[in-house]
Amino acid sequence: MPAAAAGHESGMTTAQPADAGLFGPGSVTWRVHDEPVLLLGGLRSLFLQALHPRAIAAVAQNSRYREDPWGRLQRTSTYLVTAIYGTSAEAAAAGARIRRLHARMSATDPRTGERFAVDDPHLLRWVHVAEVESFLTTARRAGLRLTDAEADRYYDEQRRGAALVGLDPATVPGSAAQVRDYYRAMRPELALTRDAAEALCYLFAPPMPWWLTLSPARPAYAGVAAAAFASMPGWARRRYGALGLPVADAAATATAQALRTLLRTLPRRWWESPVHRAARERLATPA
Q: Taking every annotated instance into account, which residue ranges of this chain make up the domain ER-bound oxygenase mpaB/mpaB'/Rubber oxygenase catalytic (predicted)?
């Protein structure tokens, strides 16, 4: 008699394995996103995403990021951490909410006047690639040791996240080489529009409560934003009118490494999200 049947007949229940979600503790994704320094990567991805005229137009015309920047940041962070550390059902529900939200949105191309859908796969792919490439690049720049094979695995794993927002995983770059080719193909579409310039200024100096404005938080944030900007590829910095000099790369690396060291000294409860903590407890994974 099979063990499961024997257990059933004897009144015993067979324990079900805990739901690891889309990735799980053995994934490169969990290693990368266990880095609090990814806040730097998040900023970098926003600078990069804003260079696509339609992508930033969609944000400018459908988002209240100027009125509620921290609320928007919180909602985006909650979605990302749920997709990475939530159960399969939680990740699927978060993806469904995003797809429903995007399906109701459209925007006008500032150059042609053409109306376009926000859930255009071409735009979703750009946002996805800029985001995951920024996270991976920032983690490695800050000192997380990953082999090139592990980096490729991260990109391949992140195709599961791309599927959540409605992309066909087969159309999403799944290796570092494919990401390089993708960026090369996309560069002719990128430009510094008025929306991008406004986003750049806003990201460098977002509104803060008065008591933070008068504290060291304002210059500290400005330093982080400058490092995020400098860590972009030279071609992206030049699109903004800045110099793409190697010295900027060196400064961004030094800042990323110092920030990682600093954040790692803080208690884990200060930067680990409740969803992340619940995943570790659910899967009995040590901190």
A: 30-263
Domain count across the chain = 1
pLDDT tens digits, one per residue of 133-184? 999 999 999 999 999 999 999 999 999 999 999 999 999 999 999 999 999 9
Whether 172 maps to a domain, the answer reads yes
DSSP structure string for 191-203? ---HHHHHHHHHH
Alpha carbon distance 161, 169 (integer Å):
9
**How far is it, in rounded angstroms, from Cα 143 to Cα 263?**
13
> Is there a domain that residue 41 lies in?
yes
Identify the CA nearest to 127 among candidates 69, 91, 68, 76.
76
Q: CB within 8 A of 142, min separation 6: which ones?
A: 35, 37, 40, 256, 257, 259, 260
Tell me the one-letter amino acid at 125: R
pTM of the model: 0.90
Please give the Cα distance from 111 to 231 (Å, whole number): 28
Q: Is residue 217 domain-resident?
A: yes
Given the structure tokens 């429903």, which residue do they identify? 100
